[in-house]
Amino acid sequence: MSSAVEEKRKHQKAQKKADRDAALAKKAELNMTSLMDIFVNVLIYLLMNYSTSPVDVPQSKEHTLPQSSTKLEVKHTTTIAVTKKIIMVNRKKVCDVVKNTVDPSLKKDKQASSYLITPLFKELKEDVQKQKKIAKYNPSAAFKGEVTIVADQDMSFRLLSEVMYTAGQAEFSKFKFAVVKKGG
Amino acid sequence: MGKKIRQEDATEEINIMPLMNIIMLLIPFLIMSTEFIKIGVINVAAPKIGGGASSSEPKKKDEKPPLNLTVSITEKGLTILTRGKKIPEGCDLKGEATEAKLPTVKKIGDKHNLPVLKQCLQTIKEVFPDERRIIIMAEPEIRYSIIIDVMDHSREGKTADKDMFPEVVLSAGVL
């Protein structure tokens, strides 16, 4: 008698389990269409903001660009980046900056009053020579003497003049200051 | 007799998993190359000290003497000069600039009074509509962002499409 009850109970249990499994199987089938819709929207948004700017600016605490209402677009030129700590030419570090000044030992004649930053000048000169060499064989890539300065907003005018003077000595004559565009 | 296609077969969902995979790969790639901030540039000519070995472009000889409009940024405020002559406070173009009336645009608290500078430059622009060049000087300690702000305010005219003084020349030292 008891075994018959046991049998029945077992059977009921198995039945219940089967039902549950079936329900689970139905639930597990995700509706992919809505997820697809989300992704397609994200994709469109990202494509619209796709960056074509030739200067990529890593923004950090040491390197915050000032804001401006300019409408001019960035062009592909040599870049000098001045952060609170270092100066880079084409993303290559050339010298350190401490409290808005370059160490006098890196300047011409080792004088603090000098405007010429020697390592920066050397690097820029190399770049100019490279560009001129290219221009020799490819007239469409003529050397225009353009340089983009990507500088931190707290840089002093003194350091800016030093960088511009050094670039001027390396035959760069047209300066472009990179800024963050206001209002989109 | 052709086979009858059952209705259920026709409405069966297509397999979108491969498409999903492609999108999943595209998204990280696009995120990496997305610009969340828009970068622009301001064209600036070299300061006089940075003439360098090649000043390639021959300078045009103007018939009129140049205006030499200059804005000098100091810790005290902004001084506007035309043809080497300082303009007194209140932007009176013909007024005499005495010590008490300088700088042209005084600071308000810690900040430079840029709207007043803009008004004064607009007055100058009305008198000299052909001028497009502005020389900006600053003391060595002046911050870069202030210089950019001054450039902004001297470039934008009354209307957004008309520029006042878009040709900026930086010059070292102050007058």
Key features?
heterodimer, A: 184 residues, alpha/beta, 6-stranded mixed β-sheet, 42% helix, elongated, B: 175 residues, Nucleotidyltransferase, domain 5, 7-stranded mixed β-sheet, 7 strands, 26% helix, 18% strand
| Backbone structural class of chain B | alpha/beta
Largest interface: A-B, 59 and 52 residues
Radius of gyration of chain B: 29 Å
Looking at the structure, the CATH topology of one domain in chain B is: Nucleotidyltransferase, domain 5
The CATH architecture term of one domain in chain B is 2-Layer Sandwich
| Share of residues in strands of chain B | 15-25%
Task: Walk me through this protein's architecture.
The complex is a heterodimer of chains A (184) and B (175). Chain A has 184 residues and is an alpha/beta fold. Chain A is built from 4 helices and 7 strands. In chain A, 42% of the residues lie in helices and 17% in strands. In chain A, strand 4 (86-89) and strand 5 (92-96) form a beta hairpin. Chain A starts with a helix and ends with a strand. Chain B has 4 helices and 7 strands. In chain B, a hairpin with a 2-residue loop joins strand 3 (77-82) and strand 4. In chain B, helix 3 (114-127) runs parallel beside helix 4. The N and C termini of chain B lie far apart (101 Å). At the A-B interface, helix 2, strand 1, strand 2, helix 4 and strand 7 of A face helix 2, strand 1 and helix 4 of B.
